[in-house]
Design goal:
Elements (H helix, E strand, L loop, with lengths): L4 H4 L3 E5 L4 H12 L3 E6 L8 H4 L5 E4 L5 H11 L3 E4 L6 H6 L1 H19 L7 E5 L25 H21 L5 E7 L1 E3 L9 H11 L3 E3 L5 E2 L1 E3 H17 L6 E4 L7 E2 H12 L5 E3 L16 H7 L7 H16 L4 H13 L5
Parallel strand pairs: 1-2, 1-4, 2-3, 4-5, 5-6, 6-11, 7-10, 8-13
Antiparallel strand pairs: 9-12
Helix pairs in contact: 4-6, 6-7, 10-12, 12-13
Length: 352
């Protein structure tokens, strides 16, 4: 199932984190479906970044989620009907380096947003985007289901599990009683063109080839639920549509790849490099690293049964699509054209 443009057309949508990789793709797709998108975020980080490359026409508030007065003012200006909360400190290794920033952004920032929304009239639905890493990972490799215990051994994972608890508490105590439907979506490890984030495998390959240096790979045998950005966003959008229209819609759903679609970091990187068409030597970094789970899988079957949504792009094809995006960008094709081409192909059922 793909998102329904008729649902989004003319709707006032508050999108937090619209300057990030996933948020920039989301803002573009929502606008193309006719949504009136208002962004709430810090200014984009680094250069290049996808937000600036897309030459956005989204109305925007530059806002730090950690500042409650600023968040309240932004929400009151937006007066949203639908809220998609994507803003976060989203990098595991950065969480180790900056735990206070990570917890204050991901936990207190979520509190500040939901507190502002409970005083705002006209809100119909709030979708809080968390992570596949919210579960208590015992390392056994079982694909986590929505009712499994939450946990998190590192600051990022724990902060996202905390955001789940915050969301549930605000939903039960304040928002659901006044008719606002609230849910959380737990996405997989998202990859795709236009990601320039440090410490992510595909952007690291792109930077290494650009600089003519070897790729430093930390964990070649780690397994993650790799997912193309368009599959993930489609799941978020379809879930939101169901949340508004269906009283029986779940309140927590994994948005991830097929349960059998597992791929280690090294073959994912090799698939990308082959499709990208540029060679880069790979060196395994054996220096001490902050601990990360070697195996992470989530079970997406509830999304299939309750939403009719399934991921359409497997991990290898997701890597190939990302490689095509970066190759086009290197060749001088406008980032917006590259994104729109893939969005339209996905919406028309031509990808996956």
């Amino acid at each position: 199932m793909t998102p329904d443009p008729s649902f989004w057309r003319g709707r006032r949508v508050l999108l937090t984190g619209h300057t990030g990789f996933k948020g920039a793709w989301a803002a573009l797709w929502l606008r193309r479906m006719g949504a009136d998108v208002c962004g709430l975020s810090l200014a984009p980080e680094g250069s290049p970044n996808l937000y600036d490359l897309l030459n956005p026409q989204t109305s925007a508030d530059w806002c730090d989620l950690r500042n409650p007065q600023s968040v309240t003012a932004c929400v009151q200006r937006a007066m949203p009907e639908i809220v998609l909360h994507m803003a976060a400190q989203s990098v595991v290794r950065r969480g180790y380096a900056a735990p206070v920033e990570t917890f204050s952004t991901n936990v207190q920032g979520t509190v500040n947003l939901l507190e502002a929304l409970r005083e705002t009239e006209g809100v119909k639905a709030v979708m809080v985007i968390t992570s596949d890493k919210v579960y208590r990972n015992d390392g056994k490799g079982r694909a986590f289901q929505e009712e499994d215990p939450l946990g998190g051994k590192d600051p990022y994972s724990a902060s996202k599990a905390c955001a789940e608890h915050v969301t549930s508490a605000y939903a039960a105590s304040f928002l659901e009683p006044k008719g606002v439907r609230v849910a959380s979506a737990r996405g997989g490890n998202v990859i795709g063109g236009g990601d320039f984030t440090v410490d992510r495998i595909l952007p690291d390959i792109w930077r290494a080839t650009s600089a003519g240096t070897p790729l430093q790979m930390r964990s070649p045998r780690s397994v993650r639920p790799w997912q193309h950005v368009l599959d993930c966003l489609a799941g978020y959008f379809v879930f939101t549509e169901q949340l508004v229209s269906n009283d029986e819609a779940p309140r927590h759903i994994n948005i991830g790849p097929d349960i059998e679609d597992t791929l280690e970091v090294l073959p994912l990187a090799e698939t990308f490099i082959s499709a990208y068409g540029k060679t880069v030597p790979i060196e395994i970094d054996t220096s001490p690293q902050p601990p990360e789970a070697p195996m992470l899988r989530i079970d997406p079957r509830l999304a299939a049964t309750s939403l009719g949504w399934r991921g359409r792009i497997d991990a290898r094809n997701a890597a190939r699509l990302a490689a095509e995006w970066y190759a086009g960008y290197d060749a001088g094709v406008a980032a917006q054209d590259l994104c729109i081409e893939q969005i339209e192909s996905y919406a028309n059922g031509e990808l996956g």
